[in-house]
Amino acid sequence: MNKNDNLVIICMFIGMILGVAIGYVMGIYKGSVGTTMCYGLVFGMLIGICIGAVIKNSNKKE
């Protein structure tokens, strides 16, 4: 693992945390906290991986 892989992992965890937090808030309003937190976790992780991969590829081009 190099520093670019660590960047992707950090972005993934940040996305997961934000996804769970957003899912929790949405779940409070909808009345189903568990389901929306799971969706937030999955979507946040995927978005974090995508952002980390974009940053990794942009750093590789430089």
Q: Which blocks of ≥5 consecutive residues have pLDDT under 50?
A: none
Question: What is the C-alpha radius of gyration, as a whole number of Å?
Answer: 14 Å
Q: Give the termini separation.
A: 19 Å
**Major beta sheet summary:** none
Percent in helix? over 70%
Taken together, the total number of domains comes to: 1
Give the number of DSSP strands.
0
**Beta content:** under 5%
Q: Which class do the helix and strand fractions yield?
A: mainly alpha
User: Helix and strand string, N-terminal first?
Assistant: HH
Overall 3D geometry? rod-shaped
Count of helical regions: 2
Give the overall average pLDDT. Answer: 85
Structural features, described:
The protein is built from two helices and no strands. It has 62 residues and is mostly helical. 92% of the residues lie in helices and 0% in strands. It has one domain. Keywords: Lipoprotein.
Give a quick set of tags describing it:
single chain; 62 residues; mainly alpha; 2 helices; lipoprotein; Lipoprotein
Brief synopsis:
With 62 residues, this protein is mainly α. 92% of the residues lie in helices and 0% in strands.
Please give the structural blueprint.
Layout: H1 3-30, H2 33-61
